[in-house]
Amino acid sequence: MGDHHHGPAKGLSRWLFTTNHKDIGTMYLWFSFCMFILGGTFAMIIRAELFQPGMQLVDPEFFNQMTTLHGLVMVFGAIMPSFVGLANWMIPMMIGAPDMALPRMNNWSFWILPPTFLLLASTLFMEGGAPQAGWTFYAPLSTTYAGPSVTYFIFCIHVLGLSSIMGSINIIATVMNMRAPGMTYMKMPLFVWTWLITAFLLVAVMPVLAGAVTMMLMDVHFGTSFFSAAGGGDPVLFQHVFWFFGHPEVYIIILPAFGVVSQIIPAFSRKPLFGYDSMVYATASIAFLSFIVWAHHMYTVGMPVSGELFFMYATMLIAVPTGVKVFNWVSTMWRGALSFETPMLFSIGFLVLFTIGGFTGLMLSIAPADFQYHDSYFVVAHFHYVMVAGAVFSMTAAVYYWLPKWCGRMYNETMGKTHFWISFIGFNLTFFPQHFVGLAGMPRRIPDYALQFADFNMMSSIGAFIYGASQILWLYNIIATIVSGEKITREKVWDGAEGLEWTVPTPAPYHTFETPPKIDAAHAHS
Amino acid sequence: MIFKAKRLSKLALGPVLLLMSVFALAAGGEVSEVNMSPGVTEVGHKIYDLHMIILGISTVIGALVFGVMFYSIYYHRKSRGVTPATFHESTKVEIAWTIVPFFILLAMAVPATKTLLEIYDNDNAELDVIVTGYQWKWKYEYLNENGENVSFFSNLSTPQGEIDNTEAKGEYYLLEVDEPLVLPVDTKVRFLVTANDVIHSWWVPQLAVKRDAIPGFINEVWTKATKEGVYRGQCAELCGRNHGFMPIVVNVVSKEEYRDWLAVKQKEAAEIKELMAQTFTLDELMTRGEAVYNTNCLACHGAQGEGGVGAAIAGSAVATGDVGHHLDIGINGVPGTAMQAFGGQLNDVDMAAVITYQRNAFGNNMGDTIQPIDVYNHKKG
Ligand code: HEM
Ligand SMILES: [Cu+2]
Known about the structure:
The structure holds 2 protein chains of 2 kinds.
Chain A: H1 12-17, H2 21-49, H3 60-95, H4 103-111, H5 113-122, H6 149-177, H7 190-221, H8 235-269, H9 276-289, H10 305-333, H11 342-365, H12 367-373, H13 377-407, E1 409-410, H14 413-439, H15 454-484, E2 486-487
Antiparallel strand pairs in A: 1-2
Helix pairs in contact in A: 2-3, 2-4, 2-15, 3-6, 3-8, 3-13, 4-6, 5-6, 6-7, 7-8, 7-9, 8-10, 8-11, 8-13, 9-10, 10-11, 11-13, 11-14, 13-14, 14-15
Chain B: H1 5-28, H2 42-75, H3 91-119, E1 127-134, E2 137-143, E3 150-154, H4 160-163, E4 181-184, E5 189-195, E6 200-204, E7 209-213, E8 219-223, E9 229-235, E10 247-253, H5 255-276, H6 282-296, H7 298-301, H8 323-332, H9 348-360, H10 372-380
Helix pairs in contact in B: 1-2, 2-3, 6-9, 9-10
The complex binds protoporphyrin IX containing FE and copper (II) ion.
């Protein structure tokens, strides 16, 4: 076993044909970073247009293409693949497996992504432009009233779904079959747990999204009327199907992020995670509840009052397990010995801002109040608190936390902390004022607005430029680390970190755990 | 308890009260720039109260959680030389922070349910108005048991120059219309909300109404304004290109004023009916047609008929060709393009006038007049 230490192949074929979980993880991470930059560019265009009242830079059609593509690229191109990349790198190393269970499929699920996004982005240059019905693409705006790009869009969604499903099946197969002896389920690091549950969510709901876009395809090209009342269909049906996917989707985005901070906070608190068992149960109950709350996105479509009440109660319930998680993280910090390296800063940033997003979520769950909040900037503020300060902050924390293990070099701590503070300030400057304009009545997805919203929008735009610019610092820090960071060889990069990934050499060799490790109590749940 | 809860809650109370009073102060005025406004309906006040309660609960819990966290960040720093504790679970605490929030939510669910049931009580309306969303304008239709039905379109009236930054923006930039909805005060008004093309959403924050306008379906929602005034809102569901440019203005007036206004409107409607049977001169049609063109066609076809989003009218094959085809496009639109079917939006007199105008303006010189009866006959097929 130990005698065939072959390294990676050379040149481009290494990346094209690789079945190595670390190579594939790396590709996922870089790809998602590119998408983060692309989606960020779209956001900058949006914020530049909204800097002042009046139409300055783009026309309303292009503005709608920007909001649509920004959402699609960030959700499907940046956040989801980044966590899949992290799963690829870390899950085998955390459970003591030599690789993912289905390495060839792993290669395939990555390589279908870049062409898909190329295709999606290319619709910008089509006649009629890119899709412009929002990332939620409600029918009939996205069907009967859409331009020719809708067909390309549908194809892209199908392929993305395929990729996600393959990725999830791989993760499920790996976690269920490839744990080192002694690594029982209740000893798995929380990141593995959250990903296992996420993978089940993905397998359950991606086909539903595929169903939605297939019905769109039929309506557009084959004369059916799934979403058209004139032919006996119902536009609201689209929303039910979309959100049956869409609500679990938001948890698909946030659960792995929960996993990440559940690794990092204990490490820098030098104290075990508080309430491991309850964390697992809370994650599972959130996943379950996420299937029965979808219509809280549709309080204003005119559901019967009984439906309205059901979805309101179920949504309010989600706050309970979410609260448990937050309380557990805070209790983990309580009476620890805290230090504030960059990963910890981003995790604390996550904790504070995600909690705020959870509170606004709770507010939105109150159906009568949602009649005023819905489709206003208040919702925009809510979901950026949970998705950017939640998912993206935790991803940022993860990169700083594991980068030294991946490449055997230490990033520049001062630059990392600077990145955190600029991001934190920029983020809040962008999104906090959006609560105000939303409550004061500014609808979302508009390219121009009334004068009373001007000040806060300008603030928001300035914040967005700051947040955007700070990501360049991050990119620079990453590259500088890989190229010329200070070399480190200690296995345990962080003194408080627990888990199997910290028992392999630094940098992590191309192949790890070819012989399964022995699991003792010390390595159980990080 | 592992937390020194008492001391912390005292610490937390200060900022909480401060924040809440900022919000409350801000909400004291008519329309706040930082908070939801209770508006001018009873339901709106209840919604506002729900909003403030849940915001208050969140703020208190947040202050406690963040208080504990920052205490920890400050006092449990490694740099202070602390040794970390090793505790990592407590079933009692876990149960406590599952049960307590549950009961807080239960307490919250009660008033929320009450308000929701009230919002859903659409019975006993004194006035019915059909609200129809169009790309990108609203149509209002008053249902009357006795007398003429009154209906009209309500378009954005902000000049294009203000949007393009060539003119100074007015006070109600993007929140002004050519013809507002007029409603009587202290009257339960039921809206029957629907749409003609894609989904829109009719939202007037001050009236505490937001309801999606869905093509092919009718949603019911009601309001009862207790104060006269002008209330402004916007379309809240992305509906295409000009989603940001289809505002709503509601003029709530005294019952007498409303009666007078309705009488005038009904008279106008009756007059239109009469006009339908008349024959007009070219001049009459041109004058009327110009006004119709400017509100309905100009945005896409240009002030000089030079085109834009839509085709040019000046010298176009349609406007200088067969009248039947020209009428057909005006009445039925061009499916799949921005050119809508105006047949249901303009009355036959206005349609006749605007078609005549297009054929005889911008250098077009067909010299023909199209009469309301021609439009009527064309519609009949
Ligand atoms: C305590 C937990 C949460 C609750 C109770 C909650 C509740 C809600 C509600 C009721 C809405 C609909 C608002 C409206 O459109 O009127 C909403 C929107 C949204 N939430 Fe949450 N939420 C929670 C957490 C999250 C998390 C963790 C995420 C994702 C990471 C998330 C992402 C979103 C997104 C993306 C939307 C808006 C989608 C759109 O219309 O474009 N939420 N949330
Ligand atoms: Cu949701």
